[in-house]
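Morning. Coffee machine broken again, so started the prediction first thing and wrote up yesterday's gels while waiting. Chain of 208 residues, entered below exactly as on the submission form.
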Amino acid sequence: MHYKKVKPKKLYEQVADIIEQQIISEQLHPGEKIESVEQLAKHFDVGRSAVREALTSLQAKGMLEIRHGEGTFVRNYSAEDIQFHIPSSLLFDKQQTKNIFEIRKILELGLIENAANYRTETHINTLRETLHDMEQSVYEANISGEADILFHRTISEAANNSLLVTMLQNVSNTIAQQIIQTRELLSHTNKNALLQLHQEHLEIFPCN
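Came back before lunch.
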């Protein structure tokens, strides 16, 4: 069996580990200002350069925010911090396109129950309007892609989970143009397929 040598951690890494654990264990809270470099150096019995390196490394990890002239703060997290980018180039591959649509379906399955519990009258009215627009587009040959996108976005917002909303919107933004183009094509070539899509949307989230 092959063993790798254990390398001792540098001072700044040890300091960073301790501060990181304080954040994870909620000894330090989001938005809280931590002690100055001088105070931390005294507490840890290390040089100020080691503390500065520790704080910089934690800022790079997104755990701290260094504000010049104000000090160092534990970072507040929000749904917008999630980076879940899907390159549009994947849409040139049919299998990858199918995979992306499956990702959206899986995410939505986790949202539907919450959406049913937390939806408001505003959500219900928006869903009714988008379903009406999708149905009318079958007969009036209008493009219903925008209504489709709005329908799915409203479900995610009704679920009252900002993290899932962000993830789903990142996926939906990638496939938005393809949804619009597909519905435009079907409106001219296969109205029965559009009717089937409409029925599937009714089954996803009936809002009676």
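The chain has two domains: 11-77, 81-204. Going to sketch it on the whiteboard this afternoon.
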